[in-house]
Amino acid sequence: MNLFMDRPIRVGDFCRFGTRIGTVQEIGLRSTRIRSLDDTVIAIPNSTFSTMELENFAKREKIWYHPRIQLAKNVTPDQVRYVLVEVRKMLYGHPKVDPQPARIRFVEFGAHSLDLDIFAYVNVTDYGDYLGVAEDLNLRILDILNEGGVSLAVPVQRTVLERAAPAGEDRIQKTEEHVQHWREENQLYLPSFPEEVVEQLRNTLQFPPAGAPAKPADQQQPK
């Protein structure tokens, strides 16, 4: 690989090279200089750099959001259904999330948890912006869990000393009534949402969330 002819990276690109991550500072005739995350400068001979596995984050158009949610095993099946539907609604409605192929799935029974995986892309390219959106998504998921009376799994090593507080029976009953209503109205959209419903939900949420100060016009990010 010729760094000048192939142009896999440019000065200013944020990339992974081998097992390390940093920002390209200079591409010389004999070596490439990269500033690492701990603010040191690494000089790598181009002959060595050209043999490394290179991942250029600057070339991406969006960033992958893929947390795993581990629910306590004492939650009811309808509580799981509630979380699956409400998280999907939230992902489809968020203005910074690409609705295709946003999804959440109940993927497996863990040793001490019920495991849900989220797969979605956030429509930003700057990692700092991504962290702000991911934080907002995480908080919205916590709201959904709280509204459904759903507890997260407690690590095994803590179960002897600590028991997870049981969710309020009223919240569990309300959640199961909510899911039953979806059944009766044919709105329990599992395993997938109809395309027309996804379009209705798209961009229905506010980001930044209500209560956050608006950014100056010159700092607004395009949707």
Main sheet characteristics: 5 strands, antiparallel
Beta-sheet strand percentage? 15-25%
Helix content: 25-40%
Low-confidence stretches: 159-165
**Sheet/helix structural class:** alpha+beta
* Overall pLDDT: 86
What is the ordering of alpha helices and beta strands?
EEEEHEEEHEEHHH
Structure explained in plain terms:
It is built from five helices and nine strands, in the order E-E-E-E-H-E-E-E-H-E-E-H-H-H. The strands form two sheets. Strands 4-3-2-1-5 form a five-stranded antiparallel beta sheet. Strands 6, 7, 8 and 9 form a four-stranded antiparallel beta sheet that branches. With 223 residues, it is α+β, with helices and mostly antiparallel strands. The radius of gyration is 22 Å and the shape is elongated. It has helices spanning 46-49, 77-93, 127-147, 169-184, 195-201, and strands spanning 14-17, 20-27, 31-36, 41-45, 54-56, 63-65, 68-71, 97-109, 114-122. Residues 159-165 have low confidence and may be disordered.
Write the layout of secondary structure elements.
Blueprint: E1 14-17, E2 20-27, E3 31-36, E4 41-45, H1 46-49, E5 54-56, E6 63-65, E7 68-71, H2 77-93, E8 97-109, E9 114-122, H3 127-147, H4 169-184, H5 195-201
Antiparallel strand pairs: 1-2, 1-5, 2-3, 3-4, 6-9, 7-9, 8-9
Helix pairs in contact: 2-3, 2-4, 2-5
Features:
single chain, 4-stranded antiparallel beta sheet, 29% helix, alpha+beta
